[in-house]
Amino acid sequence: MEKYTYIRKTITWENRRYEVRGKTEQEACDKLAELVASLNRGEFATSGNTTVDQWFLQWKETYKAPSGLTQKSLGLYDEKYNGYIGPAIGTLKLKDVRDLHLQTILNTQAGMSYSHVSKLRMVMQELFRQARRSRLIIYDPAEGLLLPESVKRSHRPITKAERRHILAVAQTHPAGLWVLTILYTGLRPGETAALFWEDIDFDRNEIHVYKAVESGTRTIKAPKTPAGIRDIPMRQELRERLLAVRGEGAAPVFPSANGGIRSANSLRRLWNSFAHALDLHMGAKVRDGQILQHAIAPDLTPYCLRHTFCTDLQRAGVPINVAKELMGHANISVTANIYTHRDQKVLHNNMAKLNPKGRRAVGKTQEKTV
């Protein structure tokens, strides 16, 4: 994935931020001097002659920053623009940008993740759609952009071998209870960060879920949809582990090192620590304290544990509408995407229900009696 490297210079003029780019320090300084001279002459005004760089800054400050987006979400716009869009077309005037320019930017990302290329297209579409609405350009060059071939990555359930090692490591690792909580309740990582001891009702054997830590912050907020508010019964082994370390009502169940609420970065470090121990437990090759060959799958994430909770519900014969409630899905189609994953044991068990009473299915069970 090739990225351009430009020298950036910025200036704030009458409470508005401007930016120029150059391939060298001298070129950037010269462009900055030209910009300052234009501003002093009162020549600058937002129009089709405005560069894409200048429009992006004004657009973000005027339309995106006041909209209530988190710093993480605002950072996504900066990451996509500064990494891919700006270096390619930032110095062009808005009126000179064509769909060919934008489609070429997208095409250079062929083979990358679907999430990345779709978000890159989204930023370009929002940027130029507003320019069109503001009558800075006659037509929108981002209107018909096509996504290049990309890779759709989805979470998966853990394997039997992974489950065996995860349960073993969770017995002693500091992050073990956190891992088991996700595996046995399907909580999202952000929901575990907002979980307090007062949210666990040991008398009713339930975990009350009604809040989560906002992505990119330590701010606790309500779920995105009402479906996120739910009560999840506890499995016996999880209940026992939680009871053994039960804390004060207003304290986080999974606190940071200083006893506060964990951020997304803190949760990521917690998982990385557990994943490292899991890697070693699964047989990673080590020399001088360094892992030379990993045994852990690169796509194993905390969301795989949540996904596994849902597939465990499927294998246990839990109706899909009940699984939807336990997972906190707003749309049952999301649950169905997990429930429709092929599982041979589930297929055989359900087909066996069609056999006449007293007849046994042909397969492993019958072969064992031979």
From TrEMBL:
Species of provenance: Evtepia gabavorous
Family: Belongs to the 'phage' integrase family.
The keyword Transport is annotated on this UniProt entry: no
Residues covered by the Tyr recombinase domain: 153-352
Keywords associated with the record: DNA integration, DNA recombination, DNA-binding
Molecular-function GO term, any one: DNA binding
Keyword Flavoprotein: no
Family annotation (InterPro entries): DNA_brk_join_enz, Integrase-like_cat_sf, Integrase_catalytic, Integrase_recombinase_N, Phage_Integrase
CDD domains: INT_ICEBs1_C_like (cd01189)
GO biological process terms, semicolon-separated: DNA integration; DNA recombination
UniProt name for this protein: Site-specific integrase
